[in-house]
Amino acid sequence: MRDTKSPDEENLRDNLASLPESPDTRVEITASAFSGPIPSPETLYGYDRVEPGAANRILKMAEKEQSHRHSMQKQMLTIHAKDIEDGRQEKKLGQIFGLTIGIVSILAGSLVAYSGKQIAGAVIGTGGVAGLVSVFVRGKREETKGDDSLISKSEVSPEAREKEFPIKLQQDALCELFKVLVYQGF
Fold first, then answer.
1. What is the DSSP secondary structure assignment for residue 10, as one 8-state letter?
2. Three-class DSSP labels, the chain
3. Fewer CB under 10 Å: which end of the chain, C or N?
């Protein structure tokens, strides 16, 4: 393995070697650290000595970067606020459509029951309402999980899809039952 030394380290060793060896000699080594979006004032001064105006350009570059970062964060906040508002609108529409479906299913069930087909009317009325209740209960369960991120269908885990499967089967079975009842004239 090759021993590689930086030029600063070699200079320090040379300077230390050139010092006289006496008990009165004291060596002081100072280290400094600086953290921030721009170099330390000493470093900026050094850049300016090498290239006049470099320190000013570095400061302008840092200001532009900060301005760009702030505008990007502002855009992200605007998009997030719009997503939240869209979610509220979607939820409100879902409630309106759910109420409409519930009223229509109760009215349809009542109308069928009034025409003499009480069993079919009861199934139609309660089936529609039961389907809505299951959707609302399921929605409340998902809300309590605390996941407010927008997840596309492809990002849903296979386990979550398996949980949806029985609900889909129930909905399909209810639809088939309605068809049979309506065609047989219950």
1. H
2. CCCCCCHHHHHHHHHHHHCCCCCCCCCCCCCCCCCCCCCCHHHHHHHHHHCCCHHHHHHHHHHHHHHHHHHHHHHHHHHHHHHHHHHHHHHHHHHHHHHHHHHHHHHHHHHHHHCCCHHHHHHHHHHHHHHHHHHHHHHHHHHHCCCCCCCCHHHCCHHHHHHHHHHHHHHHHHHHHHHHHHHHCC
3. N
Q: What angle do CA 80, 81, 84 make, to 5 degrees?
A: 90
The span from the CA of 24 to the CA of 18, in Å, is 15
Contacts of 19 (CB under 8 A, 6+ apart): 25, 27
pLDDT at 53: 93
Task: Please give the C-alpha separations between residue 154 and each of 6, 85, 106, 166, in angstroms, as whole numbers.
Answer: 53, 23, 36, 19
Under 8 Å between Cβ of 178 and 145 = no
The token duo for 9 is 């380290």
Is the separation of the CB atoms in 37 and 65 below 8 Å? yes
More confident residue, 44 or 20: 44
Residues 167-186 pLDDT 10s: 555 566 666 666 666 666 55
pTM of the predicted protein model: 0.44
List pLDDT tens digits, range 133-145: 777 766 666 666 6
